[in-house]
Amino acid sequence: MLLRGSCLLAAFVLGSLAQSAIETTDFNVTRALEDQGVDVSKLPVPALAERSSDSACSIACKSLKILYGDRVLQSNEAAFDSFTVGYWSIQQSNVMPFCIFEAPNAASVSVAILLSRLSQCPFAAKGGGHAAFAGASNIEGGITVSLESLNTIQVSSDKKTVDVGPGNKWGQVYTELAKSDLAVVGGRVAPIGVGGLTLGGGISFFSSIYGWACDNVISYEVVLASGLIVVASPTKNRDLYWALRGGGNNFGLVTNFNYEAISLPGNDMWGGTRVYLEDNFPRLTQAFSNLVANSPLDPNAGQWIAWLVNNGTKIASAELWYAQPDGNASRIFDEYNTLTAISDTTRNTKLAAYATSLNAANPYGLRETYYGLTVKLNPEIADLAKDIFYEELPSTANVAGVNPVLLYQGITTGQIKAMAKNGGNPLGLSPEEPLYLIHVACWWENAADDDTVYAFITQVLNRITARAKERGVDNDYIYMNYASLYEDVIRGYGPDNKAKLQRIARKYDPQQVFQKLQPGYFKLDRPPVVDARYFSG
Ligand SMILES: Cc1cc2nc3c(=O)[nH]c(=O)nc-3n(C[C@H](O)[C@H](O)[C@H](O)COP(=O)(O)OP(=O)(O)OC[C@H]3O[C@@H](n4cnc5c(N)ncnc54)[C@H](O)[C@@H]3O)c2cc1C
Ligand SMILES: *[C@@H]1O[C@H](CO)[C@@H](O)[C@H](O)[C@H]1NC(C)=O
Ligand SMILES: *[C@@H]1O[C@H](CO)[C@@H](O)[C@H](O)[C@H]1NC(C)=O
Ligand SMILES: *[C@@H]1O[C@H](CO)[C@@H](O)[C@H](O)[C@H]1NC(C)=O
């Protein structure tokens, strides 16, 4: 063991909180590793002279192995394969890192980043592994840092806040918090990761009351490019705190989220699925639009609608929920209640069980994409978008195992107003304007059909955008958590917010480690993949 004792690590972490978070121009990576208790002279760093990327990662992974032993997995090990199949989509499972590092604690995340800098071996970090496209949270030939062991769930003694490690999935969080009649504003489907969902925004069952997940984080503990472990909150590193509320993986690796706790007695709520046939579609889009618009009248209520074809029949599947029991009694659902569903599972339920049940429709191991846009609230667009989707659908007829779905959600004024808490966030949404998020979700079997699928979705989204523009209801925002590899999410936050995010990144990460050495996902100046053939927002 070449880490010189945990006291030293603790001293470094505590010391760093008092110290400036800014990396100086004479920053010395070797010294930073030594400050972390790493005996660099025992690592194979002299071989760094070669600097080919293969040897860079060989050196970095060997060094991690020397320091952390079993926590480093390489491709000849069974545990390596069981790790890679833990990604939701096959596009991510197919990516082969040089090694996987199961980081045991925040200090080891810091060591991994510094070793990446020293060796110039690139890295990625995996939270829940639900981002669908290749390289989002896994890296070909590099170091994939798994955050899974950072799985604290700790309620504060006054029950007002909860520390949640980034390796948790929402199902675990809700099950644990149910014991205290609490919840947090987090994901709606059990196996989704805390890390990715919160850093991209985070739409919850409770968002029209409390806002998005990112707006209910009181403070972040984050490992910066320098290896320093700092707190970002409304009072500490305030600019970094703002940037992390939707800025994704561009600023550091978050090792703890401290959330505001919300009261949820008995873990009780209400929700379920109502399925409708085509004769109800026009009235369904009305019900959807009116519920988005009327949300402030009863923000306990929420909804999404999935449009699809099931066994040759067009159906719409509306997910309706309520943040308390007996949502069926709220007047807010009156319009939905006048429609005849062919099936209806709405019931009193518990948050943890509900989030688990919603995962049934999301199998692992397939090619997957989410791909979306935003428009201003407009009932005509709600009507048109689904028609466009159904018109274009035949172009996927020959795609094996294809399952395209068009999804509608609302960004209500309640959600947007809550974004102003604690100094706001970088998403660029205006509280005067409720919005619709419209995205296509699709799985299919073969890589040979990728172009057909992406071209189909591009056509759908381009046509929706054109109709929105005609009506002056287009909007540049792209929700990171539903965006595809071809979309430039940060550009959609608007030029001022983008420039501000870039300034903050240069301040905390002057060598642009999180832009260059961690190349995956939505970078500040680009989409993950540039391809002019496809819809980019
Ligand atoms: C079935 C399903 C249901 C969903 N439901 C919802 C929902 O209800 N609400 C919603 O808003 N979104 C939802 N999403 C979208 C979801 O938020 C995104 O897919 C998100 O990226 C998943 O986060 P993850 O940690 O699981 O993914 P990962 O692939 O592990 O991470 C995504 C990105 O975040 C980075 N990252 C993760 N953790 C950290 C960290 N601690 N520090 C720095 N970077 C980190 C990763 O490096 C990667 O770049 C859903 C997605 C699916 C597939
Ligand atoms: C960086 O620090 C190491 C170890 O303290 C030292 O040997 C090396 O000379 C330093 N490099 C520079 C460029 O200062
Ligand atoms: C699909 O529809 C056909 C008729 O259109 C019906 O015979 C068949 O049972 C249906 N299959 C399922 C799984 O519903
Ligand atoms: C709502 O559903 C519950 C059972 O889930 C039932 O007892 C109650 O009567 C229903 N209320 C209304 C207004 O339909």
TrEMBL record:
A Pfam family assignment: FAD_binding_4
Keyword check for Flavoprotein: yes
Magnesium is among the record's keywords: no
InterPro entries: FAD-bd_PCMH, FAD-bd_PCMH-like_sf, FAD-bd_PCMH_sub2, FAD-linked_Oxidoreductase, Oxid_FAD_bind_N
Keywords assigned: FAD, Flavoprotein, Oxidoreductase, Signal
Domain FAD-binding PCMH-type per the UniProt entry, residue ranges: 93-264
Signal peptide: 1-18
Similarity field: Belongs to the oxygen-dependent FAD-linked oxidoreductase family.
Protein name in UniProt: FAD-binding PCMH-type domain-containing protein
